[in-house]
Design a protein that fits this description.
By secondary structure, the chain is α/β, with parallel strands linked by helices. Helix content is about 45%, strand content about 15%. The longest helix has 23 residues, at about 100-125.
Length: about 250
């Protein structure tokens, strides 16, 4: 599989801001065919495309309003009708609110799995697909434990397990679709500004704990996402912790 992004068609869920936007910008620096940003926030999505188009050219980035819980079929069909083939799917949409148990699992796990399987089926090269790559945005909470956000932890552990199983070398050999995960540490985004613990009793402690952790800008995650695309084998997961070297987990 050619591990470069030139002339690739790339789809990013939750791509209008934060880590998703940073990944979109980093990918655009590699001269893909197009980066398709999906997001539920139309205002942010339109603004994102204005900024990206000004820097990288018209039609290099497009925005489609999308709720990952409800819009998979219509958005998938629209993308395939217009672009025919998708080379890369980045499952970035997510939330961190442990008081919303069902919604957390629905977005962080169920939607990610459903989007992965839909695009995996499209990409598989044993059924006339061209192969491709699925990048799942997990978290350091997909392999590291603390007592503050067990619902979020469970969702990200699920992402890692799903990635390593679907992306297993046997599946990659049979079907030609690479599946990898990135695991950012604490990153300065809207998601981490509004973190909510499973019980209010530990919220203050969690906030104090978070302040002791190394933080990074979304741009760092975007840069490393390109590095992961270029080097990662299928079924692997990679920790992104600020200036620390990219590490497989």
């Amino acid at each position: 599989m050619a591990k470069d992004l030139k002339n690739k068609t790339i789809v990013i869920t939750g791509g209008a801001m934060g880590i998703g936007y940073a990944i979109a910008e980093s990918f655009l620096q590699t001269n893909p065919k197009v980066v398709i940003i999906l997001d539920i926030n139309e205002e942010f999505g339109i603004e994102a495309i204005k900024k990206l188009s000004a820097k990288y050219g018209e039609k290099k980035a497009v925005f489609l309003k999308c709720n990952v819980l409800t819009d998979l079929e219509v958005i998938f069909n629209r993308i395939i009708e217009e672009y025919r083939n998708v080379d890369v799917l980045v499952n970035n949409a997510g939330m961190l609110n442990d008081s919303a148990v069902k919604k957390t699992i629905d977005i962080n796990v169920t939607a990610l799995i459903e989007w992965s399987l839909k695009f995996w089926e499209h990409m598989r090269n044993d059924k006339s697909g061209k192969g491709g790559t699925i990048i799942n945005v997990a978290s350091i909470y997909g392999y590291r434990i603390d007592p503050y956000v067990p619902i979020y932890q469970a969702s990200k552990f699920a992402v890692i397990g799903f990635t390593k199983s679907l992306g297993h070398v046997k599946n990659f050999t049979k079907f030609g679709v690479r599946v990898v995960a990135i695991c950012p540490g604490f990153t300065e985004t809207a998601l981490t500004r509004d973190m909510i613990t499973w019980t209010p009793d530990v919220m203050q402690e969690f906030n104090a704990y978070a302040k002791t952790q190394p933080w990074q800008k979304p741009e760092r995650v975007g840069e490393v996402a390109v590095e992961v695309f270029k080097k990662a084998d299928s079924g692997t997961a990679w920790s992104i912790l600020g200036a620390q070297p990219l590490t497989q987990v």
